[in-house]
Every structure is written in structure tokens, then in C-alpha cells.
Amino acid sequence: MKKKVTEKEYFCECVRQNEGSMYTLAIGILKNEADAADVMQDAILKAYCNLDQLKDRNKFRPWILSIVHNTAIEYIRKRKNIVDLEEQEQLASPEPAVDTATKLTVREAIQKLKLPYRTVIILFYYEDYSVRQIAEVMNASVIAIKQHLSRGRKMLAQPLHKEDFFQ
Predict the structure, then answer these.
(1) How does pLDDT run across 29-84, given as a tens digit for each residue?
(2) Four-residue CA torsion sign, 107, 113, 118, 124
(3) I need a surface site. Which of 27, 34, 108, 111 has the fewest CB within 10 A?
(4) How many folded domains does the chain comprise?
(5) Which residue range(s) make up the domain with 146?
């Protein structure tokens, strides 16, 4: 006899499976580990309170990432008038380092991008999202996402020496 999974168990398991992607997106938008952690907590709470709005369980990942994205943007808007005096901490790569210097250079260049370019680049290259999936997460058109990707790549090509990174 198979035990029925409760909504709470389902939700917790899905959050565990997606927490890396959620954190990558939050840190990419906010550029600060503490803020990213706060936004993740808020997003998880919002998602749990609105779990009944998720009609298709197979779309949990884009749904939760959309909530993280919107929560991070909301957080930025609320904090616009606050000056952050702390310096940003260097991000450690969670994957095994192939070329640490290159990864740090690319990550630093991405962190300097303005929103929404930074978000689109992170979702496309780090999370392997399709343009259509990114459009869903960001509540934008596919055309707008393609434009953001193109512009983001151009912005990154200048400081990164295009021939070294975009082959």
C-alpha cells in the first residue's frame, strides 16, 4: 500500500529540489547573500500560502522561480532609499572549479549588469531555462526576453573579450 503524500510533504520536497536554482536567481538579482536568504524565505512562505494557485504540479519550478523573482524585485523597490554600506562578499561557485579565475570574472561581469539583463542571463546560462520558460518566470513576452538576452550578451562581450567566452 502506497502512502499518500500530503500537500506539505510535496511542497517541502519541491522546495528542496529547487532551492539551488532559487538561491542562484535571488543572489543574481540582489547581489547579497543575506538579502537573497531573506527573499528566499519570503518567497517560500508566499508560495506555501498560495499553493492552491499551482494548477499543474509539473510546473512547480517555473512557478516558484517566478515568485522568487517577483519577491526580489519587490525587495529592491522597498530598499531603494536605503544605502548599503557593506561591501559585497565574493561569491563562491557551488560547482567544481574548472577555471576559477574565469568563473569569477564572468560572475563579476554578470553582477554588474542591470536588471532585467542580469536575471535573464542567470536563468538562461546558469539554470538552463529556455526563452519561453524565462518569459513565464518574468511575466514578459518571448520577444522581450530575446532582446534582453541579446543586449545582455553584448554588454558582457565588452568587458569579457568576446572571443574568449562566446565561441
Answers:
(1) 888 888 989 999 999 999 999 988 888 888 899 999 999 999 988 888 887 654 44
(2) negative
(3) 34
(4) 2
(5) 98-167
The span from the CA of 55 to the CA of 75, in Å, is 26
What is the chain's length? 167
In a domain, 87, yes or no: no
Same domain? For 73 and 106 the reply is: no
Task: Give the span between the Cα atoms of 151 and 72, in whole angstroms.
Answer: 22
Residue 161: DSSP 8-state: T
| C-beta contacts of 143-152 below 8 A and 24+ residues apart | 145/120, 148/116, 148/117, 148/120, 149/120, 149/121, 149/124, 151/117, 152/113, 152/117, 152/118, 152/120, 152/121
State the pLDDT at residue 102: 63
What predicted TM-score, i.e. pTM, was given to this entire model? 0.61
CA distances from 28 to 65, 69, 138, 162 (A): 12, 10, 14, 21
| Of residues 60, 67, 61, the one with CA closest to residue 21 | 61
Same-domain status, 113 and 50: no
